[in-house]
């Protein structure tokens, strides 16, 4: 049977390599796992739900190419390992398993994570810690123990999956703060670990649809409601994140470290989804005598129409 996995890369790109993908049983992590395994890599997938991991590993192993260029490939290339990244002991055990059973850790993809929607004012301390512990501290544990278990002496390449939070992340501020922490940690690690020949980068996905990702939100239309903030005018697919991860892990990115690549259909450089309710305007604190400019109406959306009209007038006046 021909492989069901599509890839833009050379089929033996990761032959003989070993990767760990946290959250590798669902959504984006599953697409990354499939592509790495199709390219010859052995992939340890790690997350909390054993059944999800086991069925994902079995299904992916079933779809993979059996040979490359006439040479047989190991038929099983995806291996489940139950691990809550919030537990340092479990993360240490994951790294030990990878080295003892698979011989090495060439790549680490810190993809496992998530959050819930809530204004900051309503986030409980427990909810805050759950999100910070998962996304920031969990990533730290994985980095630290992959380093000690293997990468310190042998090098490696790491990709951290974060979110598009360049304009803040109102509505999910806990995760915005955690991922900004991961992005900064990435820069520090790129510098501290360059003598060990470790490269480390981030991917910042925009709005990427998968059934499991969407299931975390109470309203099934949540993802589609983002279309107006996406210049590409469609949602992203997990496979579109996976391609960028494979690039960053591969030798093609040998001179890239400490950076973030957005995979977001242009969302990061476009408008925020957050709508500011109209209000009376900030008080003028220091200049009580100042004459305020007349207050216009804050309309949402439509600023580009106004801008185009102004540009057209300017153009006409220059003719
Ligand atoms: C515009 C569309 C979005 C575009 C961007 C998309 C980004 C994505 O990341 S999509 C992928 C989403 N996937 C996930 O989020 C999966 C993983 N998520 C989780 O596991 C949880 O959200 C977690 C990170 C909070 C961890 O959950 P868990 O370890 O199971 O912790 P608890 O369920 O026990 O919760 C602890 C605590 O957190 C508060 N809380 C949890 N969920 C909610 C919620 N839906 N609303 C409000 N508060 C929540 C709460 O305080 C919990 O404590 P208890 O009240 O005692 O249950
Ligand atoms: N989809 C999107 O639009 C975007 C997603 N992202 C991020 O991409 C990553 C993948 O999300 P996506 O595939 O979309 O959604 P999913 O909900 O499908 O994936 C989240 C994965 O994280 C794993 N996970 C969660 N908590 C833990 C934990 N404590 N320990 C180990 N694994 C954990 C889950 O597995 P299990 O439940 O078995 O533990 C699951 O496989 C996440 O970090 C997400 O926040 C970022 C930007 C946008």
Automatic annotation (TrEMBL):
Keywords: Fatty acid biosynthesis, Fatty acid metabolism, Lipid biosynthesis, Lipid metabolism, NADP, Oxidoreductase, Peroxisome, Phosphoprotein. Its EC number is 1.3.1.38. It is found in: Peroxisome. It comes from the Eukaryota. It catalyses: (2E)-octenoyl-CoA + NADPH + H(+) = octanoyl-CoA + NADP(+); (2E)-decenoyl-CoA + NADPH + H(+) = decanoyl-CoA + NADP(+); (2E)-tetradecenoyl-CoA + NADPH + H(+) = tetradecanoyl-CoA + NADP(+); (2E)-dodecenoyl-CoA + NADPH + H(+) = dodecanoyl-CoA + NADP(+). Gene3D superfamilies: NAD(P)-binding Rossmann-like Domain (3.40.50.720). GO terms for cellular component: peroxisome. Transmembrane segments: none annotated. One of its GO terms (biological process) is phytol metabolic process. Pathway: Lipid metabolism. Coiled coil: none annotated. GO terms for molecular function: trans-2-enoyl-CoA reductase (NADPH) activity. InterPro entries: NAD(P)-bd_dom_sf (IPR036291), Peroxisomal_t2-enoyl-CoA_red (IPR052388), SDR_fam (IPR002347). Interacts with PEX5, probably required to target it into peroxisomes. Participates in chain elongation of fatty acids. Catalyzes the reduction of trans-2-enoyl-CoAs of varying chain lengths from 6:1 to 16:1, having maximum activity with 10:1 CoA. Has no 2,4-dienoyl-CoA reductase activity. This is Peroxisomal trans-2-enoyl-CoA reductase. The lineage of its organism: Eukaryota, Metazoa, Porifera, Demospongiae, Heteroscleromorpha.
């Amino acid at each position: 049977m021909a492989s069901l996995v599509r890839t833009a890369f050379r089929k033996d790109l990761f032959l003989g390599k070993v990767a760990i993908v946290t959250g590798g049983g669902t959504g984006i992590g599953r697409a990354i796992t499939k592509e790495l395994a199709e390219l010859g890599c052995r992939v340890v997938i790690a997350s909390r739900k054993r059944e999800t991991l086991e069925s994902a590993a079995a299904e992916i192993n079933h779809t993979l190419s059996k040979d490359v260029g006439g040479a047989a490939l190991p038929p099983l290339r995806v291996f489940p390992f139950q691990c809550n990244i919030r537990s340092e002991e479990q993360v240490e055990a994951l790294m030990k398993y990878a080295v003892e059973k698979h011989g090495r850790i060439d790549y680490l993809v810190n993809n496992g994570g998530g959050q819930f929607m809530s204004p900051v004012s309503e986030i409980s301390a427990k909810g805050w810690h759950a999100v910070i512990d998962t996304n920031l501290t969990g990533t730290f544990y994985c980095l630290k123990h992959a380093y000690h278990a293997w990468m310190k002496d042998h090098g490696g390449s790491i990709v951290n999956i974060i979110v598009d939070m360049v304009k803040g992340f109102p509505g999910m501020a806990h995760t915005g703060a955690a991922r900004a922490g991961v992005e900064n940690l990435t820069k520090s690690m790129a510098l501290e670990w360059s003598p060990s020949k470790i490269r480390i980068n981030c991917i910042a996905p925009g709005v990427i649809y998968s059934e499991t990702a969407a299931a975390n939100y109470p309203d099934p239309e949540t993802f589609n409601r983002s279309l107006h903030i996406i210049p590409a005018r469609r949602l992203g697919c997990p496979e579109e994140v996976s391609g960028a991860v494979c690039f960053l892990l591969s030798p093609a990115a040998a001179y890239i470290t400490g950076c973030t690549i957005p995979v977001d259909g242009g969302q990061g450089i476009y408008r925020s989804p957050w709508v500011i309710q109209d209000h009376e305007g900030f008080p003028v604190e220091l200049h009580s005598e100042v004459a305020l400019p007349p207050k216009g109406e804050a309309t949402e959306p439509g600023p580009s129409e106004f801008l185009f009209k102004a540009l057209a007038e300017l153009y006409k006046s220059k003719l």
